[in-house]
Amino acid sequence: MRRLIHRYVLREIAFPFCMILLVLTFVLLMGKILQVMDLMINKGIGFADIARLMLYLLPSFLMFTIPISLLIAILIGLGRLSGDNEWTVMKMSGVSLYQLSFPVACATLVAFLMTLATTVFLVPYGNLASKALLMDMARQKASIGIREKVFIDDFQGILLYAERIPAHGDFLEGVLISDSRISREPSTIIARRAYLVSNPDTMVITLRLEDGSTHSVDAGLNRYRKMDFRFYDVRLDLASALSAEKKNGTKSSTEMSLSELTTTLGNRGLKEEALRELAIELNKKLTVPFSCLVFALIGMPLGIRAHRSVRARGFTLGLFLVLAYYLLRLSGEALIETGRLSPILGTWIPNGIFATAGTILYFFSAREVSFRQLFRRASADPAPAATAADGASRGEKRSS
Q1: In a domain? residue 313
Q2: CA–CA dist 311, 297 (Å, integer)
Q3: Which domain holds residue 74?
Q4: What sign does the CA torsion over 176, 181, 183, 184 have?
């Protein structure tokens, strides 16, 4: 009998969990899909590379959508049991809230392990792989990172500006370049049109300019030199930029694993701002999976409350709880970044607040005691004492 109830409750939670997880993840991916589709339509990037890029970005969304989907699924699943009076029948059959917690705990454990694996392993790998894939795309199609009417400083010593870029992206128009690779004599180059020629093997991009001029001034600002050209090549060395990036800071905080974050935090040569960022990322890898346990603890007592519009109430209440939780979390991270709060307190306070509230609500629901009844008892307890005191005073008066 218990196994049948457990399977039934698990099925009531599993179906909304899968549906909400799919919808929320798709909604978050839509913001990236619209940007990535431009690479495929206008920049000529293949569908296979686009699919790989979206797959690498998926874990960064799943680490948030899994706990949210679990909370809303518990509210909807248990709310339907209460709304159809099935929970009342279970209680009459001897099933308590503690026994009902077993299937919810199993679903929570699965969501916890999924989120833990996502934050610890998949998110760093996905961020690092997406960065490498974008770099490979840039090697194959050099014009991906160049946008019109935007100053580009991705190449060391060169600032590039293009007035107009056609949709096909084969050339640039109205090009302005500030070349400071020669510190003694920086120059400014103006050209009517420019073509990007990339060599993926040598990781070198050549910017071939047409119909322009170079303008330079010597170090003493005494001589000005102008040179008109029909064709002029500017070499953009991508390999040196990559090697410099690897030497300076191999990975960002979101690309590091737990061991790498712990090792980097032990480096005393880092600035305080960098240490705070690393500490936030390290604690986030643990607090996000634990939010599944917290959401389940607070979702059970709120879900078994009977209500007619079960799905609408569960979804609305879930979004409200998620909004409150992430507002607390963002506030804590902001206080950490400004140095007003320690990383441990700032990242774990939201879990602590929700765990405390969930524990109180859980035991009240298990004992079938509501806040109204608790307040009524508290307000009714002083009344008999006051009546007894009044009676004693009246008896003293009569005896006198």
Answers
A1: yes
A2: 19
A3: 2-138+266-369
A4: negative
* In contact, 111 and 18? CB cutoff 8 Å: no
**241 in the same domain as 294:** no
> ∠ CA 51-53-56 to the nearest 5 degrees?
110
Give yes or no for residue 181 having a pLDDT over 80: no
Kindly state the tokens that stand for 100.
Answer: 């009902």
Question: What contacts 255, CB < 8 A, 6 or more positions away?
Answer: 124, 127, 128, 131
Question: From CA 125, how far away is CA 51, in angstroms rounded?
Answer: 16
Q: How many beta carbons lie within 10 A of that of residue 241, not counting itself?
A: 16
pLDDT in tens, 121-175: 999 999 988 877 876 776 555 556 677 888 877 677 788 899 988 877 678 899 9
Identify the CA nearest to 286 among candidates 217, 351, 221: 351
Cβ–Cβ < 8 Å for 108, 293: yes
Residues 243 and 159 in one domain: yes
Sign, CA torsion 394/398/399/400: positive
Number of residues in the chain: 400
- The Cα 120–Cα 71 span in angstroms is 21
Collapsed DSSP state (helix, strand, coil) of residue 224: strand
Please choose, from the candidates 274, 398, 313, 260, the residue with its C-alpha nearest in 3D space to the C-alpha of residue 83.
313
Examine the fold and report which residue of 202, 220, 247 is the final residue of a domain before the chain moves on. Answer: 247
For 302, other C-beta atoms within 10 Å of its C-beta total: 22
6 and 95 part of one domain? yes
Cα-trace Rg, the chain: 32
The structural domain count of the chain equals 3
For 58, 339, 385, the CA distances from 399, given in Å and listed in that order, are 85, 71, 21
pTM, two decimal places: 0.74
Same domain, 6 and 94: yes
Do 151 and 94 share a structural domain? no
The pair of structure tokens assigned to 354 is: 């929700």
Evaluate whether residue 256 is within a structural domain.
Answer: no
Looking at the structure, tell me whether residues 6 and 134 fall in a common domain: yes
